[in-house]
Amino acid sequence: MEQLPSKAEILRWIADNPGATAKRDIARAFGIKGGPARIELKRLLKEMEADGALERRRRSYRDPDALPPVAVLQILAPDSDGDQWAKPLEWQGSGPAPRILFQPRKSDAPVAEGDRVLARLTPVEAPDHAYEARLIRKIGFNPHKLLGIFRKETEGGRIVPIDKGADKEWRVAADATGGAKDGELVEAEQAGPRGRLGLPQARVVDVLGDPTAPRAVSLIAIHQHGIPDDFPDAVIEEADAMHPAGLGEREDLRHLSLVTIDPADARDHDDAVFAHADDDPKNPGGHILWVAIADVAHYVTPGSALDREARRRGNSTYFPDRVVPMLPDRLSGDLCSLHEGVERACLAVRMKLDEHGRKISHRFTRGLMKSIASLTYEEVQEAQDGRPSDRCADLMEEVIAPLYAAYEALKRARALRQPLELDLPERRIVLSDDGKVTSVAFRDRYDAHKLIEESMVMANVAAAEELTRLRRPLLFRVHEEPSPEKLDALREVAEASGFTLAKGQVLQTAHLNRLLAQAEGTDFDELLNVTTLRSMPQAYYHHENFGHFGLALKSYAHFTSPIRRYADLIVHRALISAHGWGKDGLSPQDIEVLEETAQLISDTERRSMAAERDTTDRYLAAYLSDRVGSEFPGRISGVARFGLFVKLDETGADGLIPIRTLGREFFHFDANSQTLMGSETGLTLGIGQRVTVRLAEAVPVTGGLMLELLAVEDREMPGGAKRSRRRVVRKPGMAKARSDKIKRKVHRSRR
Predict the structure, then answer these.
(1) What is the spatial distance between Cα 609 and Cα 600, in angstroms, rounded to a whole number?
(2) How far apart are CA 695 and CA 657, in angstroms?
(3) Based on the number of CB atoms within 10 Å of its own CB, is 502 exposed (0-12), middle (13-18) or buried (19 or more)?
(4) What is the pLDDT of residue 22?
(5) Which of 57, 110, 354, 693 has the smallest CB count inside 10 Å?
(6) Model confidence pLDDT, tens digit, residues 108-122
(7) Are residues 317 and 414 in the same domain?
(8) Host domain of residue 493
(9) 321 in a domain, yes or no?
């Protein structure tokens, strides 16, 4: 029999290889191949687990003395080499706390010995330390942030804010300019307490350069749309005082193989899933699906400073280069985020599905869970497609395969329900380290995405049904059917494109799906999807239930994202009150202002969407600004009295062709047919036509694109702009990406 490693050797190997700690990885590392030897290794690992030297997470092992990805640290004195070290404040391991090297960036607020900081930790393989830490922010230090133009003076300078309501300038000392030059856009923070006389002091923390540069785009949008981007001191103090929730009277769910599945760049993890076959003989082929959601209500209680600020923000706002969170980092990135291997408070629902994906029953609970893995959509899909990574290989049988089995059942239920099947490409703007747009592509969309979406829809339905059954107040997610005017406009576009949408019947999503199916695979596919989307009213929150047309559901609420949506927090509180799970449920004040809250957070959602849309437009304009004069293929996406709107194939950006540039003849606008017709040539320009255009102007400050029409359906414009001999710009691989129909279900943003 092979020689077994010692316990010390196993511990050293696990510490050196934290990403590969399954039993088979350990066996492979020490050359253990025979059956008897593997049995002995299993016995040895169990012995180490019983001794507390190892912690078992399903089929993998790890040192129980590991730190979470985000933690509160205390700064220690610098060593003789000037390196800054830190120690965790919440260390509960059996041995001494691991050494943490603190690595400040130039823009970070200065720290000193004894300071407490919230930091992001990265495990490293170094001889003298186990982690490296990056500052998120100092605990108890909440400087006022501002955005403005730096004006150079003899000694230091001053900052002129760009905020609409700000009329006071800030003084910047000579040693606090951060190297900013006159006229540059800077992000700054308060430098010490405000004095009674003179201008307040500020320190430049980030130089953004040209105010029209891409890196400044999202910050300008934040300020222009009035999105709160710094937290009041009282909010930070409350968040900093929080501690992880214990088991108490919660249901212990730590035995469930719950996993989070998110984008690779996810900033938080607020939902986890687990599924298995139902062993009830009365439900053959059925499934049990668990959805566990971060218990934000435990930390954000009614009437608190945290609650007031979360309600004011309504939701988190996401940009390509940053996020403006609804909750401070201490909660959104730490205590409420379902990190791998960390115990977290949750609200969970256990749903029983039949073989056709229909929900037979559900049960809600307030529990304590521990995610066994933080997975990405890409790696889960790779595993399902037969190419599992090492860690996914150990999760296939117990976790991944059962989730996909439940998803197949949910797909069957979805097909019967016939929700609106809108498919549109989702642009992904990729930025370099200095904030410049390096590429604009379309996101891949996998069954892994749909698996999570359908699981969340089912949990949201269960929450709405549960609270309705218990006659408890809540906020519904409402989506009404399109108005007759919008429907007529859609019908006209469909007919102009050669398709039909029947009249004289009660509109159902199935009718719209048949229209979209007619267009699928044709040149009008994307056009009909976009036009159908534009005909839909925007979903909103309301204290009364008017159903959800787009999802074809009678009752729907938001339950699954309380870290980033206040509506979900209200639903969580309602569930807590309804089941008597604590005193942090829905308060009388919550109920009294429920209608007002619904309107407020519907408005903040629209505000965030407008800011995100403006930011995307500006990034696209910046990306295209150095390609003015180039030619692009596209399609007419809109017709107005003043010109044509064209969507460019390569980036999905929208540009305007002013009517005055179309030629010397007069063009008549027909609102009914949505066309422009030339008075002399009879040339008709309408929605859906293929065009070639020249980029005449790109203005990053406004996000505007001005185009010149060169050709329609490969015919040059008579009397208009002339085509150059240069080849039309097409991005490599874009044609294949579009032909492969890499698209995104937009119903998530509409839910």
Answers:
(1) 14
(2) 10
(3) exposed
(4) 67
(5) 110
(6) 777 888 888 888 999
(7) yes
(8) 484-535
(9) yes
Are residues 245 and 316 both part of a single domain?
Answer: yes
| Strand pairing report for 100-102 and 131-138 | parallel
Q: Of the candidates 514, 535, 556, which is a domain's last residue?
A: 535
DSSP code of residue 107: T
Sheet order of strands, 251-252 included? 251-252, 359-370, 343-353, 287-294, 271-277, 259-262, 373-376
Q: Higher pLDDT residue, 520 or 12?
A: 520
Listed residues 138, 169, 196: the one ending a domain: 138
> Exposed, middle or buried, 338 (CB in 10 Å: 0-12/13-18/19+)?
buried
Number of domains in the chain: 5
Residue 706 sits in the same domain as residue 669: yes
Residue 388 pLDDT exceeds 50? yes
Q: What is the rounded distance in angstroms from the CA atom of residue 490 to the CA atom of residue 53?
A: 66
C-beta neighbour count of 216 within 10 angstroms: 24
Instruction: Please name which of 689, 687, 666, 685 lies closest in space to residue 676, comparing C-alpha atoms.
Output: 685
Q: Could you give the CA distance from residue 28 to residue 39 in angstroms, rounded to a whole number?
A: 14
586 shares its domain with 659: no
pLDDT in tens, 258-294: 999 999 888 789 999 999 999 999 999 999 999 999 9
Pair (23, 51) in one structural domain: yes
Q: Pick from 552, 80, 559, 509: which is nearest to 346 by CA? A: 559
Better pLDDT: 126 or 605: 605
Helix (H) or strand (E) holding 16: helix 7-16
Specify the pTM: 0.77
Strand extents, DSSP E, 139-264: 145-152, 157-161, 170-172, 185-190, 201-209, 251-252, 259-262
Residue identified by tokens 């995610």 is 371
As a whole number of angstroms, the longest Cα–Cα distance in the chain is 94
In angstroms, the CA 504 to CA 506 distance is 7
Cβ atoms of 240 and 330 closer than 8 Å: yes
Q: Does 529 share its domain with 545?
A: no
Strands 744-745 and 675-678, by their bridges, are: unpaired
Q: Does any domain span residue 228?
A: no
Alpha helical stretches, state H, 22-136: 23-29, 35-51
Mean pLDDT (the chain, rounded): 86
CA atoms within 13 A on the CB side of 355: 7
Is residue 603 a part of any domain in this protein?
yes
Owner of token pair 């990729």: 430
Contact 568, 562 (CB under 8 A): yes
Contact 299, 307 (CB under 8 A): no
Question: Among 197-201, 342-346, 734-738, which is the least confidently predicted range?
Answer: 734-738
**Paired tokens of 540:** 């909103």
Is pLDDT above 70 for 735? Answer: no
Neighbours of 62 (CB within 10 A): 16
